[in-house]
Amino acid sequence: MTLAPTMSQRELLVAYREGGEIRARDRLVEEMMPLVRSLAGRYANRGEPFEDLVQVGAIGLVKALDRFDLDRGVEISTYAVPTIVGEIRRHFRDRAWSVHVPRRLKELSLRLSRTLDDLTGDLGRSPTIAELAKAVGAEEEEVIDALESSKAYSARSLDAPFDGDGEDDLLSRLEDREPGYDALERGSVVRQGLAALDERERRIIVLRFLKGLSQSEIAAEVGISQMHVSRLLRRALESMRGQLDELDGLEESR
Amino acid sequence: MGLVLGGLGTRLELSYERLDELQLAVTTVLDTLAADGEVTVDAAFDERELVIRIGPCEAPAATSVVAGHVLEQLADASRVATDDDRDWVELTFARAGVR
Predict the structure, then answer these.
(1) Domain ranges (residues) in chain B
(2) Do A190 and B65 touch (CB under 8 A)?
(3) Are the C-beta atoms of residues A115 and A90 closer than 8 Å to each other?
(4) Burial level of A92, CB count in 10 A (0-12/13-18/19+)?
(5) CB-CB under 8 Å, A234 with B31
(6) ipTM greater than cut 0.85
(7) Are A190 and A174 contacting, i.e. CB atoms less than 8 angstroms apart?
(8) CB within 8 A of B82, min separation 6: which ones?
(9) Is A185 in contact with B31 (Cβ distance < 8 A)?
(10) Nearest chain A Cα to B10, which residue?
(11) Among the partner residues A140, A209, A226, nearest to B69 by beta-carbon distance
């Protein structure tokens, strides 16, 4: 099917929804990205990178395109706005500080997150605490305090795309490396633990513990900050542990 | 514990990444092992490495499988050492520039 350049948004949506034309959806997304950027702009300067908010808003836009009732007599944009805003708000809610952290530590933590990524790039290695402290103009003790506080920041996954390193792939890697009973036992346990994780957490675990990538390498590959990788690793391991503890408890009660 | 290890890592001039993994490894051991009463975390270092001993403890089966694999990746060496018939987890981290 040819998509005429003059097609209206409604016609494009009909082509996508009723004709399965992904190109029509892509063009709609492209046309409506200025709206997404405008809405994301309302939430800028609240501690989240603008481009992250745009990406989250784009997810909301795609959901709106999938859910919009073609029989409704309203503009697509009218329906999409609350869905996009809802997605951005959910992003903030999911990334809230889980315990009370003084404002100065929150601000220092955010500065450190950016500085850490910049310094890692400049130095070609992970910086020391002293180097971080010098770069942000703070005492080493304050930096340690802020880094520790940042672990109280909840970083819930945004259902990021998962490009193939799935659970089955992880298990096959374990089995390749360790044939025999040990692999079977590990594979079974790891499978049970991984069941508690979402896709992004599973991907981070695979990259760190099976591919052996460093946190900075994972950050570059996934497109998030090193401190975010650190938080996701902690949360993923905690979730796996919780899942396995539960299973241990069930085994013991039998 | 995070602040204590942070101070230690700073004194040893560990990189941010190394320090973060040291903290994650110790947390993994503390959270995973079924402690029998009081747990002691002991740190010793020289110009080449930092050795952390945690225990005494008993390890539940399933969780320790995952923890063992995790520790293999985070620490330069990890082992269970027996002392007075009690198990201790021993983690070794090379210092900056040595690894």
Answers:
(1) 2-94
(2) yes
(3) no
(4) middle
(5) no
(6) no
(7) yes
(8) B88
(9) no
(10) A129
(11) A209
Q: How far is A140 from chain B (nearest CA, A)?
A: 8
Q: How far apart are CA B4 and CA B15, in angstroms?
A: 16
User: CB B16 to CB A189 under 8 A?
Assistant: no
**What are B54's strand-pairing partners?**
B41, B89
φ/ψ of A207, rounded to 5, equals -65, -40
Residues contacting B28, CB < 8 A, separation 6+: A237, B67, B70, B71, B74
Instruction: Quickly state the pLDDT bin for B19 (edges 50, 70, 90).
Output: very high
Fold of B2-94: Heat Shock Protein 90 (3.30.565)
List per-residue pLDDT tens for chain A, 254 residues long: 677 888 888 889 999 988 888 999 999 999 999 999 998 888 777 667 788 889 989 999 998 899 888 887 788 888 888 888 888 877 776 666 655 677 788 889 889 988 999 999 999 999 999 999 999 999 999 999 998 888 766 544 333 333 334 444 444 554 454 444 354 445 566 677 777 788 888 888 888 888 889 998 998 888 888 888 998 888 888 888 777 766 655 555 55
Radius of gyration of chain A (CA): 22
- B16·A147 Cβ contact <8 A: yes
Residue B21 near residue B56 (C-beta atoms within 8 A): no
Q: Are A29 and A13 in contact (CB under 8 A)?
A: no
Which residues, other chains included, contact B53 with Cβ-Cβ below 8 Å and sequence gap of 6+?
A: B40, B41, B42, B44, B81, B88, B89, B90, B91
Q: Is the dihedral of CA A7, A21, A62, A205 positive or negative?
A: negative
Interchain CB contacts (distance < 8 Å): A and B = 87
Tokens of B63: 């969780």
N residues, chain A: 254
Q: Which of B16, B27, B65 sits opposite A186 (nearest CB)?
A: B65
Average pLDDT over residues B40-49: 88
